[in-house]
Amino acid sequence: TGAGSGLGRLFALEFARRRALLVLWDINTQSNEETAGMVRHIYREMAEEAAAAAPGAAGDGEKDVLPHCNLQVYTYTCDVGKRENVYLTAERVRKEVGEVSVLVNNAGVVSGHHLLECPDELIERTMMVNCHAHFWVT
After folding, report:
1. How many domains does the chain have?
2. d(CA 93, CA 87)
3. Per the domain annotation, does 11 fall within a domain?
4. How confident is the model over 75-98, as pLDDT tens digits?
5. What gap in Å lies between CA 55 and CA 52, rounded to an integer?
6. Domain-located, residue 61
7. pTM of the complete model
8. Which residues does UniProt call coiled coil (predicted)?
9. How confident is the model at residue 62 (pLDDT cuts 50, 70, 90)?
10. Helical H segments across 19-127, by residue range
C-alpha cells in the first residue's frame, strides 16, 4: 500500500530488483502507474542482462543467472482509509492475481500540524489510514 510515492515507491523498486511479482496499491492512480512503469523498466533491464549473460551469449557458461520468471506488476487504486474499498480491492486481487504472500502495509497520512491545530476531520482521516487500515488490509 502507498506505492505511489515515498517509501512505498522505494519498497516497490527494491522488491522488483529482487524479482518479486508486485501488487501496488495507492489512492493516487497516476503516481501508482508511474511506480509501475519504473518497476517494468527494472524487469526489462533484468531480462536483458539475463539474456546477455546466458551461456553462449557472453562466452561465460559458468556464471549463475537467475531466470526471468515472467515478472509482472499489477496496480490498483485503493483508499485504505475506507474499509469497503479495501475489501473490494482485496477481492479483486485474489481473483486477478491470487493470494498475497508478503504485505508491506505502508500507506500513511502525515498532517504536518501540531495535534491541537488539526481539524477533527484530519485527525479522523489519519487514524483511519495510519491505524484502522492496517487491520483491514491484513
Report:
1. 1
2. 10
3. yes
4. 999 999 999 999 999 999 999 999
5. 9
6. no
7. 0.85
8. none
9. very low
10. 29-53, 83-96, 120-127
